[in-house]
Amino acid sequence: MSSTYWSVANAIAPRPTSVRDLLTTLRLRRAFENEERAQQRLAQLAEQRSDSNPPDVRIRAWEKLHGLRLPFDPQHPVLDVIAVATRLTLPEVQAEQHARSRQRALRATQLKEPLEGSRAADGAPLLQQLESRAPLYVLS
After folding, report:
1. Who has the most CB within 10 Å: 61, 65, 100, 104?
2. Among residues 100, 48, 106, which one has the least CA distance to residue 73?
3. Residue spans of beta strands (DSSP E) within the chain
4. Which residues have CB under 8 Å from 47's CB, separation 6+?
5. Which DSSP category does 119 fall into?
6. Strand partners of residue 119
7. Quick check: pTM over 0.85?
8. What is the C-alpha to C-alpha distance for residues 5 and 11, in angstroms, rounded to an integer?
9. Residue 101: CB partners within 8 Å, gap ≥ 6?
10. Where along the chain do its domains lie?
């Protein structure tokens, strides 16, 4: 039984018999992986530039493609780059910035409301304790 299994396994995925075969197999695999990455990048670029996608989707696609976040500063120099890459105007990119800042403010307000009347174990107001902790730094 094991000899049958071994021959079937070799028929399905033959092992390279020489160094040349091994190198050829590795080169083919690398070429295939590179082609897949190139196709994926083209698809991401198409999503980023597609006129059928709204500005927020295009900007999120740009962020994903470049591994960066939309800066908070409305005068940041990279906004021009984002606008060109996504086929948006600078005011459209700034409008998305503004919408995101409104969402952040709304979430912060919603998080503070349940904490306002709460007290920590030592009796101090919980919101005051949270606000007194070291601030988080965000690059702008």
Report:
1. 61
2. 100
3. none
4. 53, 57, 58, 61
5. B
6. 125
7. no
8. 10
9. 72
10. 17-112
